[in-house]
Design brief:
1% of the residues lie in helices and 52% in strands. The chain has one helix and 50 strands.
Length: 640
């Protein structure tokens, strides 16, 4: 009778243990054994036993009950174990249920016979039949695959692909089985040719050599198509399982490191550096640098760097002087440039480049033409003698001297907004003059001036008057009074006809003042300055230049910027008697006008009468302030 039977079950355990279901590996043969007692004695089944099992998932039958007739092997000893062996892969693989609470549950029972009785196990403590059950483990699969979907791989470099072997999370495998081999596959797009690489051994990675994958594709795919374990278990990927990759690199972002907000010495080498920021971590293949001298309205190339270097040395005299912006962009592994960086401000302390002179006609009064950058002023010279600075961006200048026959060296340089001068650019020409006639000059001294007159033979457009070799005026008449001289001077007159001239003889003459005199320069009408109460008249002078100090990184002392401009102020002290009140009123009317002052000691001053002060009683004591200005007797309209 069934109630007289008891059974003991050997490993594998078929009852829950601490709430865990016993686990069998369906990929291996499984041995089930029972020791069966009838009363106090063990029985020894023989022949075949019948193994019944039904498969469930979540309480739902997914495989109806099946039965196997299996031979019984009974061991010697006590208790005698009667075992049956269920072949590998009898139970279905757990293809789902990797999360908690999933998995397959197998219910089973075994019917033994052969000793003159029949019993079905397992039995509970009362001898009643109960259902044995266990779970099947999920076969190994690949997980943790890198690179992941959407990642970038550099087709120009070797790439390592990795994966891990994972078993069912719900059950415990006491001894994980090593990988025996795997198959790595890749293709370019879903319709591309599948390329396979066999991987032997337990190593779960594959190194694919550089230049294996196609460049510039967003359709690269890879997978591990098959894994074979050392115990023979096999995992195969689904036909549609692929991981998508790209060999198109992401765009980079450049970030300026230095210089930023710094003063640079433009006549020295300067190092510019930046960072190449890119999500894929690939190296920079190129960098472009630009600068702007107009607050970003336009940009000029500064440097180009090929390769991964993230700094470049800019040679001396490359950058223009002044306030600049600079920016940089970098290229990814595909050679594609990213966006320009935010610009960084710098101030470059540098002289501008020398102007480029254009060809010059070899006439007695030639015209210089040039090309230049950063020009805010220019200065020309002839045979080493400066012709004066001219402010502005004009790039054409007629030489303000009539040149004699023979070779002459002409030059020009330009000044930047920082007040720095470029090097001189020079050209040598050979002049040949054709005189259009002759000029005979005479002179005589007059009160506060010198009277010139001449006789001309030939046809002249105009006459230029020279004092001590400097042009002081131009006229079409045959006479000229020099009111701006003081003392003895040398005079000449140049008769001009077209591009040619005739030069008169030299004449020396005195211009004498008996006392101090002052007049507006735009209409000579002398005011006599004779006396000063109680003491001789006084002329005092103050002169100075502006100096700006700039501080640079790496220098312990400042660099001086010395202005090219001179401030010079003269103070005159005179007195006026009562009968000279009319002269005083005339003098006061000149305040704020450009005047000329001369005296019997040879002093000559030209500037603005910028101040008058003094006191009056029966006479007037007056202090006059004259600020010198760059006033010229002759503007060089025709020639000098």
């Amino acid at each position: 009778m069934a109630s007289n039977y008891r059974s003991e079950m050997s490993t594998p355990h078929i009852y829950p243990t601490d709430g865990m279901i016993g686990v069998l590996d369906q990929a291996k043969p499984s041995i089930f054994a029972a020791a069966i007692r009838q009363g106090d004695s063990y029985v020894r089944p023989s022949g075949n036993a019948t193994f019944y099992f039904t498969v469930y998932r979540g309480g739902e039958v997914i495989q109806a009950e099946r039965s196997l007739s299996l031979p019984v092997t009974t061991s010697e000893g006590t208790p005698p174990w009667s075992a049956v062996t269920v072949p590998a892969n009898t139970f279905p693989a757990d293809d789902d249920g990797w999360g908690a609470g999933g998995g397959l549950i197998v219910h089973y029972r075994i019917t033994y016979s052969g000793w003159g009785g029949v019993v079905t196990v397992p039995l509970d403590g009362s001898g009643s039949l109960q259902i044995g059950y266990f779970g099947t483990i999920k076969p190994p699969r690949t997980v943790g695959m890198t690179p992941e979907s959407g990642a970038f791989v550099d087709d120009r470099a070797a790439n390592t692909f990795r994966w891990n072997i994972e078993y069912n999370k719900d059950y415990t495998v006491s001894t994980p089985v090593a990988q025996a081999s795997a198959v790595f596959q890749w293709r370019n797009g879903s319709s591309g040719t599948v390329n396979s690489v066999n991987v032997s051994g337990a190593g779960q990675s594959a190194v694919i050599p550089a230049n294996t994958f196609p460049a510039s594709t967003a359709a690269l795919q890879w997978r591990i198509s098959r894994v074979t374990m050392a115990d023979g278990a096999v995992w195969e990927a689904d036909a549609d399982f692929w991981i998508n990759l790209t060999t198109i690199d992401s765009l980079s972002t450049a970030q300026i490191v230095s210089p930023s907000g710094a003063y640079l010495t433009g006549n020295e080498e300067n190092t510019f550096s930046w960072e190449h920021v890119i999500a894929t971590g690939t190296a920079q293949t190129r960098a472009d640098l630009q600068y702007s001298a107009d607050a970003g309205e336009s940009w000029e190339s500064l440097a180009a760097v090929t390769g991964a270097a993230q700094s470049v040395i800019i040679p001396a005299d490359t950058l223009p002087g002044g306030a600049l912006l600079w920016r940089v962009r970098t290229c990814n592994s595909d050679g594609t440039a990213g966006e320009w960086s935010d610009p960084a401000p710098i101030v470059v302390y540098a002289a501008p480049p020398a102007p480029a002179l254009l060809p010059v006609d070899p006439v007695p009064r030639p015209v210089l033409r040039w090309q230049s950058a950063e020009q805010q002023a220019f200065e020309a010279r002839a045979d080493g003698v400066s012709l004066g600075a001219v402010f502005g961006t004009a790039k054409e200048y007629r030489i303000t001297r009539w040149l004699t026959d023979g070779a002459h060296t002409l030059g020009v340089r330009v000044q930047s907004s920082l007040g720095l001068w470029s090097e001189w650019s020079e050209v040598t020409i050979t002049v040949s003059n054709v005189p259009p006639g002759t000029v005979a000059l005479t002179a005589r001294g007059v009160e506060n001036g010198a009277r010139l007159s001449w006789e001309a033979a030939g046809s002249f457009d105009a006459y230029l008057i020279y004092r001590d070799g400097e042009a002081i005026g131009e006229t079409s008449d045959n006479s000229w009074t020099d009111w701006f001289a003081n003392g003895r001077h040398r005079y000449e007159v140049r008769g001009v006809s077209g591009e040619y001239y005739a030069l008169s003889n030299e004449v020396w003459e005195w211009s004498v003042c008996r006392c101090g005199v002052l007049s507006a320069v735009d209409g000579i009408d002398w005011i006599l300055l004779r006396l000063r109460r109680s003491r001789p008249p006084v002329v005092s002078t103050e002169s100075g230049r502006q100096v700006r100090l700039r501080y640079f990184s790496g220098r312990s002392r400042p660099v001086a910027e010395i202005s090219a401009f001179t401030d010079r102020v003269h103070t005159l002290e005179y007195s006026f008697r009562p009968e000279e009140r009319g002269e005083l009123e005339r003098l006061m009317a000149l305040e704020g006008r450009t005047v000329i002052y001369k005296n019997q000691h040879g002093v000559r001053l030209i500037g603005v009468l910028s101040g008058l002060s003094g006191q009056q009683d029966w006479a007037a004591d007056l202090r006059l302030t004259i600020t010198e200005t760059d006033w010229r007797e002759y503007d060089g309209g025709r020639a000098v």
